[in-house]
Here is the input.
Amino acid sequence: MIKSFLRIPTNSWNTDLGLLFLRIVAGLYLALIHGWSKIPPGQFTGMIQGMGLPGIVAWVVAFTELFGGLLIALGFLTRPASLVLVIQFLVVVLVAHAPDPVSQRELGLLYLTVSSLLLLAGPGRFSVDGILNRKSSPYQR
Here is the structure.
């Protein structure tokens, strides 16, 4: 049993199920806890302007987290959404929270890691992208 668990092929059903779980949990958490809480940006706008950026950046960040998280949870346009989120969380970790200790950058690093993984691995077959890909190509699983 343990031997077979350790030899799971990369494109297995278990891998796709794991990607589904990761996408739903991380995507909904990002959208509903982080994105939704920033609309309207209010206080967040002040923080953004304090870094010397225009207030509109607060709206861009809020909508990126809200809609990017929802797209990831659905597995729709996963790689483009992940790319935008990778860029955003690189800025969060390397610029906005650069002077902070790692413990305060932990959540940004976690979202950067999840977004990077989904950018590289894709959403898996249990996603809108996976369904659309199977319908458009007769050679897919």
Summary: Residues 16 and 124 are 5 Å apart (CA to CA). The radius of gyration is 17 Å.
